Amino acid sequence: MISHPSKILRLILGDQLNINHTWFKNVEPSVSYVMMEIRSETDYVNHHIQKVLGIFASMRNFADLLRSKGHHVIYIKLNDANNLQQFDLNIKELIHQHSFEKFEYLLPDEYRVDQHLKSLCKNINIPSEAFDTEHFYTSRTELKEFFKGKKTYLMESFYRYMRKKHLVLVDDQLQPLMGKWNFDADNREKLPKNHKPIAPLSFDNNVEEIYHEILNANIECIGSVQANNFLWPINREQALQLLNFFTEHCLALFGTYQDAMTPHEWSLYHSRLSFALNIKLISPKEVVDAAIAKYYSAPEQIEYHQLEGFVRQIIGWREYMRGIYWAQMPGYADLNFFNHNRALPSWFWTGNTKMNCLKHSIQQSLQYSYAHHIQRLMITGNFALLAGIHPDEIDQWYLGIYIDAFEWVEITNTRGMSQFADAGIVGTKPYVSSSSYINKMSSYCGTCYYNHKEKTSEKSCPFNSLYWNFYHQHEKKLSKNPRIGMMYKVWDKMPQEQKTAILNRSQCCLENLDNL
């Protein structure tokens, strides 16, 4: 008797567009791939319109690429009459209609989807199997295993382990090139007044058809878009072009100005590869290898600290944050160390605030679905922490507004590093600052309505009084932290009259958040 191969249905998620995956090496007539645009994914948070467009456009391009290679693809568009708008419902219907005999999927990066697909597999009467996405340097559990038995998950330790394991920027004895592991101290300069960065590479993708489909579906989105001139990469070729542009034109100054902020530039020397990376159009290894290759091809043009700072973002922080996510979920999503409970000010959705740094960072985010890491950490995140905003509100805002935000990387950065809601799993201290840091690293303060030098007047920068109020309110939880003990010494030495004035100003700000 001749044995026929089983009819297999394979699911590809919108952030699993890795054409180099083993699945796609050979065309198998018995295999059908399914991709779907569904409301359960567009509606679980209020997304930026560019994020939805970018994912859908990339998915459609990927489906066309698979078909061009001979694979059979079932593609369910958002407004198709047969779209049941959930993974499980659509898959059950396809199994029923086409008599598939096995269901396969790639491991999702988000806990929510992971649980959904596990539940689906228990409720279908055919075998199922999950496969690795073959994207990350690490497995889901590698970080947890690395830190087994340890109370803290120190990123620097993990970063050094990754460098040695993958032979990245190490010598034959697995020691760091240039004598030390971390050159972060060299990467903290403000953008000079008359310095003009190269114009960022953008694309002119026409996604008007998808845009109108989203409008017709009445999906609630935030932000703006030029649908006939969509600037983000939506296929592998464009992602590789952006990578090449970064290594050619931006890497040489990436580290120096990676923390700098200005209202006149939205991209500076950042790679903006995170969207392409997070939907897997390109791999982290490709990105790291390309940066290292460029350094060695032009060592006279690129200082080593520029390269190391970029490599650390990819092989260090990105893999570290994913490892934390899978080590700590689902409980991580409920952590609220400071018991903060305020709602986000309404201007987080418009940028209509008199605080120049927040106005620019938020309006830039609404225009481009993008802000770089210091804008996210030390402007919007810093303010939210000082103002006592509930971490749930912060998570939903960050997850929605940024094109590169997927929960596995968003929640560990916001609830962890930004809001310290995890009590120090990710960061060793809360990342808060007064206006002095913002003024040091940006050109926001000079033209602001508020005076960055004042703490107590009606026009004093709210960051100043909120900063000291934060430490005052949480002294029991923070005073023994060795990294911030100095701030309590400064606070203790202040005259009581000054303390009272600062706390009164902070209370006024907190009672009028929507009007700041």
Description:
This protein is mainly alpha-helical and 516 residues long. The protein has 20 helices and five strands. The chain has helices at 39-42, 49-68, 87-98, 111-122, 142-146, 155-165, 208-216, 236-254, 274-278, 284-297, 304-328, 356-368, 373-386, 391-401, 407-418, 435-441, 462-473, 475-478, 485-493, 496-511; strands at 8-11, 31-36, 72-76, 102-106, 128-131. Helix 11 packs across helix 15. The chain is globular, with a radius of gyration of 24 Å. The mean pLDDT is 95.
Please give the number of β-strands: 5
What share of residues are in beta strands?
Answer: under 5%
Could you estimate the helical fraction of the residues in percent? 40-55%
What's the multimeric state? single chain
Strand numbers in spatial order across the main sheet:
3-2-1-4-5
Radius of gyration: 24 Å
**Would you identify the regions where 5 or more consecutive residues have pLDDT less than 50?**
none
Shape: globular
Distance between the termini: 78 Å
Summed up, the helix count is 20
Determine the structural class based on helices, strands and strand pairing: mainly alpha
Sketch the topology as an H/E string, one letter per element.
EEHHEHEHEHHHHHHHHHHHHHHHH
**Largest sheet report:** 5 strands, parallel
Mean pLDDT: 95
